[in-house]
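Quick look at the format.
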Amino acid sequence: MIQDHPPLTVLLAAPRGFCAGVERAIQAVEDALERTGKPVYVRHEIVHNNRVVDDLKRKGAIFVDDIAQIPDGAVAIFSAHGVSRAVEREAAGRGLSVLDATCPLVRRVHLEGQRHARSGREVIVIGHRGHVEIEGTTGQIDGTVHVIESVAEALTVPVLNPERIAYITQTTLSVDDTREIIAALKARFPAIQGPDVKTICYATQNRQMAVRVIARRAERIIVCGARNSSNTNRLCEVALNEGRQALLMQDPKDLTLAFIDGAAVIGLTAGASAPEDLVQEALARLAQWRRLTVEEVSVTREDAQFAPVDLSRLVSQLANAS
């Protein structure tokens, strides 16, 4: 019974959940489904969250891993993570009607890397090998590109000319870990050029900062989001680095009574691709076991907005082709 257990204070991190880039990408798929009148295929998960993807599937979107799986004449949408030039060329060669929902902040990283490559610099990309964003970023840059994940790799990555190198970063990294890697690169290559951690997206940085703040009071921290979401996993790492046990909650059943046993104050947040519904379901589950006091802890206000993905040209092309 709830009355048999002590009350529980929940520190609700703000900001949390969807960022502007995620909202823009989801809206692009919904708009395409509504306005094109054609089958809509999305290359890769539009954002890394099963609940979001499943909702779009119910609305009619079809998710594929490869452009080759998209039939001729269909609408193809590139996810918020971005794609390589090879994928862009393949889509163009297939005559697909393409809608590019790449996050503007990911696109900024592409442009930064391309600028350095045009200047004759080798580009070091700090990020996670195999992550779809890294695959897209490295595939957008001509010339020599190295991917590193750690300080150890920063100290050993082979370069042709230490005077002509630059670095860029994945947008969803741990700010603290990335600073350490950058410091190692700068110590080894004094002439290296790069943006510090400025290309780690604002939403990633804000959500990590919020976790640090609530960790000062919270004994344990729940992070809502998907297990394949980089920014969600980084929030768990931040909590652990602050000495707090962290639980990644992909589904409400992941949250157990044992996790909050003995705790008087816990923190609750969500990755940038996690819907607010998941946060509310976490609160509802906690309320089954304990009497809750919910306190929102705001560290900054996010007012960034991105222009919607423009469908007008795509809709016109489809109309002319029919």
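Next, a different chain entirely:
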Amino acid sequence: MRGARQRGGRRGVESYTGPMGGLDTGMRLAAMALAWLAGTALHLQQAGLAAPPSQAMVVLAAVLVGAVAARHHRHALGFVVLLVALAGLAFGAAGVQASMRLADRLDPALEGIDLELTGVVASLPQRNEAGVRFRFEVERATRAGRPVQVPARLALGWTRGWHEDAAAGTASDTLRAGQRWRLTVRLRRPHGNLNPQGYDFELALFEQGVRATGYVRDGPAVLLDGAAGHPVERLRERLRDAIQAHVPERRAAGVIAALAVGDQAAIEREDWDLFRQTGVAHLMSISGLHVTMFAWLAGGLAGAGWRRSVRAMAWWPAATAARWIGLAAACGYAVFSGGGVPAQRTVWMLATVTLLSTLGLHWPWPLVLLAAAVVVTVPDPWALLQPGFWLSFVAVGLLMASAPVRPASGPGPPPTPLRRLGRLLRDGLRTQGVATLGLAPLTLIFFQQLSLVGFPANLVAIPVVTLLVAPLALLGSVFAPAWTLAASAVQQLCAGLERLAAWPGSGWAVPAAPAWVQALGLLAAALAIGPLPWRLRCLAVPLAVPMLWPAAELPPPGEFEATVVDVGQGTAVLVRTASRLLVYDAGPQYTRDSDAGQRVLLPLLRARGETRIDALVLSHRDTDHVGGARALLAAMAPARLISSVEPWHPLLAGRSGVERCEAGQSWTWDGVRFEMLRPEPGDYPRGLRPNAMSCVLRVESARGAALLLAGDIEREQEAALVAAPGAPLRSAVLVVPHHGSRTSSTPAFVAAVQPRVAVVQAGYRSRFGHPVPEVVQRYRDAGATVRTSAACGAWRWRSESGTETALAPQRCERHQKRRYWHLHLSDDAPP
């Protein structure tokens, strides 16, 4: 039966009757969009990719099947086949893109050796006290004078003395965007830490097309051309430098640079913490909100000017011209801001809406959002894994769904300015309320924390930043005094945010919830803000309770859970009993302004719902063990601090109640025994090296399953432990001493401990060579399974049902969540 089109003043969607039972075109299009997104999502779950010819065959088969099914789309079976073909096409198209990126790889044989590269600085350089980081587009690569193949786009660091073999000169101070350089570098394949609920560094690089990382070596560095390309990046850098020169206050200069040129690194870490705590972090970088606002302002001004020209109006309607000019302005702003992924997504969304409006297709808002989502994921299928994708689309959808229906204005005088102002304020409050309630579940799902002062903070911050600071930041590029006004507004805003952040209970943190709890939370948000009767909205309260207070999976009394955190080259271990948490070491300091406490441990603890640390053990003062302690001490002041660190160390300055770790100390939590085995009390006056003073802690469950944390002890200390009468060394799990160095793990010590699993915390391609092969083989010969953090990620083990000889289930995060963009290392077989 032929369909009958719904007719009206505008073109909408069609409605059909017949074999599909009256399914209209809008629903068909929505189903097709969902099929595409489902195929893309399925592709993103793959641990590995098929060969490129197989990917191409999937695309070809999907196209052929879809073409046949499209001829019979009015029939139920034909339409279902069409949906399957669309999902297959999305799956295959994403696979083709992924295969192309994976093909641009670094040969493992070229890792860690000197290469001479010629290329162009392709991004805004990010500077700090240690040096500079930048993207580098390679034009030529050689090894010992012979050409070699390396990825086209690299992420490089040029530091001063942070690596022992890094460039020590000051040539990096002259590096600018768009310059062509010849550099000596060392590269490695992309590899990042992988922890539960943690940031996926390898995914971020893969999405950006960066297929190798590295650093500039202390060798010849020659500037070949001062302006070889990337004029936009050169302009962005000049503008950023001008902002920093004109605005002396660093906080204000950082925010202005972030909003004007997209330089998020210009904002200090402490300021990011403040913005996150008050729920306004989304405003302090060029996001979808800023790009949309810029497009709206540009389109409004263009439309007003267009209407003044009779010739322009005759050529193109003012409304259409305003939309396209606004879109062009958004594109320009996105490019000038660095073309970040959030800005790209927003431009694609605006382009979709603009095209539909121009074609006169006034689709329902859910269909518009689905169409925009498809358009976004075609060039960037990995956008589906980004929190920003879901937050932006859901925010727009919630505002559209909850918009009040206003009655048409009848005859009578127009509303007074005071009434219009009141309506504007009510709409602003409603919009902010809808966004706060509707996005709360997603915020808890992605970040496991929620700002309870976010509503009042955003009520002020959104208009101040979007209508005042951001426009002034851009205006300053042609009228520098505007930056002074913007800086004053930033300072006043930050002062107010600091007062809000000081309120007791300004934030709410929860553990990561299971999928069914997350689904209930999303449903609760939809009920709360939807245009529904209040009796239905009240159902949101009981549905939201599991999301706000999810039940944490805690060990039963007498048992414990150990998480050997993936912090790279360093040590950090979490030991959880039924009611207590112990943290053993705090990981390394990565750079002078970045450490494992702030980047890894605090996000992990918050994702687990931890609100306090009952004991923090700092084994010794080496920075790969205490580098992240300052962040932990500031954010979660531990009830006990146990350490061999000297009293003069800056970490302990002005801190009272610090306990020295000594052999013989012991305590019991929830039936789990903690016993300190080293150092001996007499070791402190001897002035031993820090490694020799490592706190050695043994944790034993009520059933006898034990974990031994050995710090960085070496041969002498291991021999003393083995010789000590009655020393309880035998343990099912051993965190290998000194990261697998050849100065530790003597045969006698390994035989005394008899570990079933030996966990090595060492960085990928550690410059110290950890773990050394002979040590790894020694543990394997003793019957132990060796886990390295580079190949395993975070390693987790619960002691239930475990004994000294029988190991309970264990989990490697990198094996459990393996995806094709992750570096697959074959050092260990999955558990």
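Residues 417-445+513-549 form one domain.

See the schema section for token definitions.
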